[in-house]
Amino acid sequence: MESGGGMSQFDLDPWQEEQSSAEPFTLGYRKGTGEPVVYGSLLLGAALLGTGIVSGSLIPALASLPVFLSVQWHYPFIDKRPQIAANETGLYLERLGVLRWSAIADLSLYKTAVRTMEFNQLHIKLKGPIEDCLVKREPQSLPRLAMRKNWRLKKAKSNAPVLEVDLHLLACDPEILLQRTRQFWRG
Predict the structure, then answer these.
(1) Is the sign of the CA dihedral 17, 179, 75, 33 positive or negative?
(2) What stretches in the chain show pLDDT beneath 70?
């Protein structure tokens, strides 16, 4: 689902009124989002494990386990895999697969703020059960099941399935992402 340019921030011309045709894109996490957490936790876990081995004490070695689990959970932040992508076939979400454009009932942005931080989500309302909306399901692997994913499946008030995709950590402007995604999806 990658376009030739790889993952990068959107670089649309700010003076351009309307994009003439839909252009495929792929997006990953913003650089610098998870490196301190992943590498810092990895060093802390290694130090605890090393201390336990050298001292012969089980306590530091056991204390390293949740730290290594944190590294596993946060690994997608440093992974180069796209988290969201779009092309003519559909909308790709990492660890879900490709959603058929015709299966999407609505696309909208949802914004929340906590003190000085703003959080954005792309809400994707589906026309039916998620299994029926996928062009291609992404194969699942056991190690990736223990990692953070960038979306959640919820139910709307109308009982329709809604995918909530976190955008605040992705290398994109949420408004431009919505605009670029709507160019493929015609509602």
Answers:
(1) positive
(2) 1-20, 187
